[in-house]
Write the structure tokens for this entry.
Amino acid sequence: MQSEGDIPSYEPSIRMVKLFLQNCNYDIENRSDEEILRLYQEHNSREVMEFQKEVFDNGFIDMAKEMPELLEIANVIKEDIRKVGDDVSALYEIIDKYIEKYPYEELKFLIFSGIKKIPLLIVERVVKAKSYQYQEIWLEKIAKNLEVLPIEERSVLMAKYQSLCDNLTVLFGIYQQSFQEEEITRMQEVAQNKLMILKNFSPQLLEANYKAYYNESKEKLELVNEILKYTQTYPKVFLKNQSMERLNNLKKEIISRKEEEVQSKKLVFEHIRALEESMAETNDSNFDAACMSAINDLNNIELQKVVDYIGSKNKFFVNRFEEVAKRFRSKVNAKVF
């Protein structure tokens, strides 16, 4: 799958790799080219993962800052809330005015404690509606600010931020941070380096590292839908979370099972027809042969289907069949029916 952002494939020369490792204080004397490349891969992978932890897992979310002017703003908010009275539209304006200037949970507290003339249920509905609105606004803007990142990394990050959207305080912090060009540039460098290393040295790990991206890829969705055409045993969300290798194996298993079912059904009908035809004949030996053939060819489940089907149409069949089975028990495979 081609990456948006077109990260180039990079094949370092042995000479440059040796120079790099020597500058990083590695002892590369008497090492084969294969060992040197492995050292280079391990060093870069470790470095990228350390950068990722610092940049993506820690820094970009844990950034809530205290604002020294909070107390002053709180007094202004309280005064504006006092003026709302029973005007619901004015309450909407209060939220729009302060939601990006004052911590969300504290703003909610001021609203719920300060509004006296609007029913509590209506206040709750207004606050919830505005919360959903700003979730979408901030997530959309974050995604736009992260467009410089490879789509693989951006998909992972946006899935993570989407999971945090109910915490508007955290989401707003991420939204603010996404405007910091220096931080975004740093993230871009780390993300591109990580993707380059994975593509060149560990392509088998791409799907695991960029699960949110690959789970929505065209190839995976087509494969998931193909499996769902064969069976409804697995929920779609479960299938999307499986690796492509697992899905391909599952598809093969399902197709193989379906083919076995078709062949089994065909075999059952063949023996039903042969037994029914032999019952219409006067020569008992033909019926005996048909019974023995069915017992030998069919498994217990298939054989039971044959016995049940013909028995439901002919009340004499089951007794005749069991008599034949008993007479020739030593000559046929053991069956339970």
Summary: The chain has a mean pLDDT of 85.
